[in-house]
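FAQ: What does a multi-protein file look like?

Like this. Sequence, then tokens, then the next protein.
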Amino acid sequence: MSALDYTLIGHVCIDELDDGTDRLGGTVHFAAGQALALGCEVRVITSATARLAQRLFDAHDGAIELDLRESDGDTCFGFDPTADDGPARLLSAAAPIDAGAVAMLLAAADRGTVHLGPIAGELGPGVVEMARAGSDYLGITPQGMLRAFAEDGSFVVDPSGWHDAVLSADALVLNDGEYRRVDQLGLLAGFDGLVFRTLGRDGALVMRGGTVLAQYASALGGHLEGANDRPRPVNPDRTIGAGDVFAAAAFIAHAAGESPADALEVAVELASHWVHRDSETPCWFGIDS
């Protein structure tokens, strides 16, 4: 796979864990690492404090180009002990990312793949349209458009933040619960791009127009011999970011000309390697790993 220009747009965040520690998080962080591992030139457009932006830059050894919309605060999520259920509540939010800034930054960059990765409704009006206009390939992980937040920071899947412009994307990545919700509401009607639907330990499938094109599960997520078909255990902490790793791999592979089925296989394998890595320290894998 040849190197591509890969631009990520969304909030970097801090994940505050139940034991009092924190870690770097957000789609732009996890997907940037995967894009770098696949040989891309990576750019991140985000809103955060200068301190958190520096932390993101350092986490990727200065290999990313960082366009910061400086904010007075940062997006922070709180996690309960069951980390594989994802974040439990939003503790604070950075300033939104506005369309004007995105349009200016994309106009000054080489066209390529743009990945919109909102996590807390941070994309201002017109951002999706600007991303479409400024890219050769647009991939969206719309989880942040599907979250409604209560005063205590808790949230539920809520499609009220969905933009019709999402349907202009070349590909979407949704987890199984998100897919069921948007499908039931008819929000994907008329979408002719690819939908990658992740299924946890069962891998993922790729669809177009409601038709399944391919399904794939990695042997890494297989079952233990002689253990009543029990799935291999994984550390719940290491599932965080897997969907973002999957999405970056799927978008990059498909943008590079791989078939939907081949892009699906690459994405599942790399996400499985992420989940089954030996250390809590983030470690991204290339296709030859």
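And here is the next protein:
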Amino acid sequence: MPAGVIRGPKSEQMWKRAKAVATQGYPGLETTNSDRFYAIVMTIYKAMCKKHGCAPADESTSLLLGRLEICEDINEYI
């Protein structure tokens, strides 16, 4: 499962379902062309999320700004 994209138990459940659907629809593709397989899984996952709303709740603006400030502070020391 892609790090940073799939967050939360509902998202993980949807990812597993999307992977199962892709495995059933494209047997053997995971081993022969993993990049294509995971692109298909991601497409299915996004469609499922759009229909079932599996993405985590949006972060507040203040929380996002706080994260940006931390990143800017770290970049000053690098």
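Q: Is there any per-entry metadata?
A: Some entries carry free-text notes. For the entry above: Residues 9-77 form one domain.
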